[in-house]
Specification:
Elements (H helix, E strand, L loop, with lengths): L1 H12 L28 H11 L12 H17 L2 E2 L7 E8 L2 E9 L5 E2 L6 E3 L3 E3 L2 E9 L5 E2 L2 E2 L10 E4 L9 H7 L4 E5 L12 E6 L1 E4 L1 H8 L6 H13 L8 E13 L3 E12 L4 H4 L2 E7 L15 H19 L8 E7 L7 H9 L10 E7 L9 E4 L3 H13 L4 E4 L6 H5 L5 E6 L16 H20 L2
Parallel strand pairs: 6-12, 7-10, 10-11, 11-13, 16-17, 16-18, 18-21, 19-20
Antiparallel strand pairs: 1-15, 2-15, 3-4, 3-14, 5-13, 7-14, 8-9, 15-17, 19-21
Helix pairs in contact: 2-8, 2-12, 3-8, 8-12, 10-12
Length: about 475
């Protein structure tokens, strides 16, 4: 989920029985006229998660063979349910071209000198890819730059000689300040930032012409590198805070007699063929059918590491398309009562910067489905694990209230959060009422995000809310 990853990184840098494993595998289908077809089925949704997040899908990186398998699977389920294809040339697939890049070797962080040490990727450190942070190999001594702020009245670089060195950003950051860009402008050849190292942060394929390697490291690693100075991360952060209160306080920056080597190896940014999966449950009334509710979530994950370790991406976000499929199945049973159509979408390219939802908004020219015809958009992300409170974004207050009131009526706690920053953003910016729905606790972008962390009971609860809200919107006058 790019929203959480982007927020975390911005803070850091600113300072059931499994479905058989084939793409065309079929879940046992219920007749639309049967009683069970009217209600949401969390066990079925869990079976979809198990298939989509199987390691055989390779983490469903946009443009990959594993993503195509997953897209075919979703299309097969849409076809099974009886949705109309709303993609290109009568298919369920809406193709688009997007930029992408991949890691070609595991990132490296080594302490050099008389006591050399190799640190472990995804444990001790992880890479950051976006803007000034990209490919490169850097070697040099450490220069500590606190929160990385560099402005009149607050210069965390004061006291450090950064040129040709590796800038160590300990935090706290400062709003509106880019620590990596500031370090680059000061002459740093690489950057280390203290933060969460278990995740693989989204690769945002919008890079500066010149990039430097940037790694996120644990506080323990940072303390290890700081040891010759006799200071710790906590000491540096306290000095930064003191100087922000009193410009006359001692400078917080300093140099350390520790030399490190870091490396991030990426492919060049290149175009890939990506696809959204789009199906339509058309309302029977001619006039009302031209307007639609959109329900969906992104299908892509962050792929596979060069060492073969797969980010299964079960919660983030096999859970979203899984609920989308089963909401479609439940709502197809009441098609005759719909006043408006319902569009169901599994997006590509969310992790790299909302490319799939942006492509949908730009390319969907037919009604129902085009942006101007949408009544509302319900975005499902990190919705299979792990909290007991649904979080609902606040970009569209009336729609948020409807979702939260529905949750309350079903006995499910909910809370308001700020802008979701997931695929709903592409619709909000086009004035379509849209919300992001997920669970209050979550696992994402880590090797631990496997199918077993997603529970049928959470899919059931969230699915009931989504289905009820979509039904209410699509049956209203």
């Amino acid at each position: 989920m790019i929203r959480i990853i982007a927020v975390v990184l911005a803070v850091l840098l600113a300072g059931c029985s499994p479905i058989p494993p084939t793409a065309s595998s079929s879940v046992p289908s219920a007749s639309p006229s049967s009683a069970t077809a009217v209600t949401f089925d969390g066990a079925r949704a869990k079976a979809h998660v198990d298939w989509l997040a199987d390691p055989a899908r390779g983490g469903r990186y946009s443009g990959s063979a594993g993503f195509r398998d997953a897209a075919n699977y979703v299309a097969d389920r849409f076809r099974e349910i009886g949705l109309e294809p709303l993609g290109d040339n009568g298919s369920f697939f809406q193709h688009f071209t997007m930029p992408n890049l991949e890691l070609t070797a595991m990132p490296v962080l080594e302490r050099l000198g008389t006591a050399p040490k190799e640190y472990r990727a995804r444990v001790d450190f992880t890479e950051s890819v976006n803007g000034r942070s990209g490919s490169g190999v850097a070697e040099g001594a450490i220069a500590v730059v606190g929160g990385g702020a560099r402005a009149s009245g607050q210069d965390d670089f004061a006291g450090a000689d950064v040129g040709g060195k590796i800038a160590l950003v300990t935090g706290p950051g400062q709003q509106g300040s880019s620590s990596v860009e500031n370090a680059y402008q000061a002459g740093a050849v690489g950057v280390l930032v203290v933060g969460n190292t278990e995740v693989r942060y989204s690769y945002i394929p919008r890079l500066q012409q010149t990039t430097i390697p940037t790694l996120v490291v644990t506080e323990n690693v940072a303390n290890d590198l700081l040891a010759p100075s006799g200071k710790t991360v906590a000491d540096v952060q306290a000095a930064v805070r003191a100087r922000r209160v009193d410009a006359g306080a001692p400078a917080s920056g300093f140099d350390v007699a520790t030399t490190v080597r870091l490396s991030v190896a990426l492919t060049p940014v290149h175009d890939v063929d990506a696809m959204n999966v789009v199906g339509l449950l058309r309302a029977p009334a001619d006039d009302g059918a031209k307007r639609a509710v959109l329900v969906g979530g992104h299908l892509d994950g962050v792929g596979t590491d060069p060492n073969g370790s797969v980010f299964d991406a079960a919660n983030d976000n096999a859970s979203g398309p899984a609920i989308t499929i089963e909401a479609a199945r439940a709502l197809a049973a009441i098609r005759s009562s719909l006043a408006h159509s319902i569009v169901f979408v599994a997006f590509a390219g969310e992790e790299e910067g909302l490319f799939g939802s942006e492509a949908y908004a730009a390319q969907m020219a037919s009604a129902p489905g085009r942006v101007e015809s949408l009544i509302a958009m319900i975005d499902l992300d990190v919705i299979g694990c792990c909290g007991d409170t649904l979080i609902v974004s606040n970009e569209s207050p009336d729609l948020q209230k409807r979702v939260r009131d529905t949750a309350t009526s079903l006995g499910i706690p909910s809370q308001s959060v700020g802008g979701g920053g997931s695929d709903e953003t592409s619709f909000v910016r086009r004035r379509v009422p849209a919300v992001f729905i997920g669970w209050s606790d979550y696992i994402l972008h880590t090797y631990r995000d496997v199918p077993s962390v997603v529970e049928a009971r959470r899919l059931q609860k969230a699915g009931e809310v989504v289905t009820a809200v979509a039904r209410a919107l699509a049956t209203a006058d």
